[in-house]
Amino acid sequence: MKISARNALKGTVKSITPGAVNAEVVIEVAPGLEVTSIITKASADNLGLVVGSEAYAVVKASNVMLAVE
Amino acid sequence: MKISARNALKGTVKSITPGAVNAEVVIEVAPGLEVTSIITKASADNLGLVVGSEAYAVVKASNVMLAVE
Amino acid sequence: MKISARNALKGTVKSITPGAVNAEVVIEVAPGLEVTSIITKASADNLGLVVGSEAYAVVKASNVMLAVE
Amino acid sequence: MKISARNALKGTVKSITPGAVNAEVVIEVAPGLEVTSIITKASADNLGLVVGSEAYAVVKASNVMLAVE
Amino acid sequence: MKISARNALKGTVKSITPGAVNAEVVIEVAPGLEVTSIITKASADNLGLVVGSEAYAVVKASNVMLAVE
Amino acid sequence: MKISARNALKGTVKSITPGAVNAEVVIEVAPGLEVTSIITKASADNLGLVVGSEAYAVVKASNVMLAVE
């Protein structure tokens, strides 16, 4: 499946913290550069994610804000 | 200001494409790793963004999906 | 690519309205049931969407609200 | 109340899975076509949702991505 | 219609800036307290919004970030 | 840090309800005007939020819907 989301950053699962409904998953997308995701626990299971898995962090462009110092 | 968004990826503005209301801004957050953002044109102006500026791509964790091949 | 978004509704493109940065795309996902999407114009082009194309409307569960009458 | 969200799909609650803060609610919006929502548990209670209730799945157009196979 | 979004701030339309696809609408929700919204131009038209209209700014709780100084 | 999100409403933390992964935080942004946020529990901890803290509710304009009665 090819998706309209402009951002798909390839990485490796560093940690998975499951809750009752959601799970927090951290992906390392470049050395030292981590992205944190909250998805449903059901989705994390469906994707077969475990620590060390390859995965993409996918973000719709309209959900990316910008900031400056 | 310190924000709750878990993801703030530091990078450099590569391009800015303005529309009537929104602008598309591309940030390079690691060599060859780009993140695309849609923000209001007013925000892009307020932040003083130009090509070459330093900026952070900020994403709330609940807006990050995961995908596997 | 298999994505964590819980919702992927298959349908047919009914209309595409391009703006400077974004495009509005309407998908019919069941007879008489339409879903409207705003994606970047670049994404609409990348996906090769035209009226009559098959496409999926993909929505992260945390972006679905519920309402009652 | 009339809302700007372009998408309001009428359906029937199929399941409700409560967590500590959020609840996952599945709505059938057409025969065999389900939409999954994560809302706060407080909202699910406020709306009086139970399995079998009529409800609308409401999605802002900017939160709908598109995908093709 | 009663919606699951936890936040519905009542206010008055201060300005409407239309683009090709989207419109930017500013609502004053308390004296001197403004909220800016981007909705589709079609939605702004459907709701009959004009400067001076009463309107609610509706935000899903999962789309509210927090920040501290 | 200066962020592109158009909405940053200053207020006071009224309540914090922690779950396994997320926390629900209510901010009073004007007398009697509350905004509810769902952020990760880790973020709530990182920001040092407690009842009575000053905090900003930050919302990207594309995540604000409008409604009329």
TrEMBL record, chains A, B, C, D, E, F:
InterPro entries linked: Mo/tungstate-bd_C_term_dom, Mop_domain, Transp-assoc_OB_typ1
Domain Mop intervals: 2-68
GO biological process: molybdate ion transport
Signal sequence residues: none
Gene3D superfamilies, alphabetized: 2.40.50.100
Superkingdom field: Bacteria
Alphabetically ordered keywords of this record: Molybdenum
Designated name of the protein: Molybdopterin-binding protein
Organism: Phormidesmis priestleyi Ana
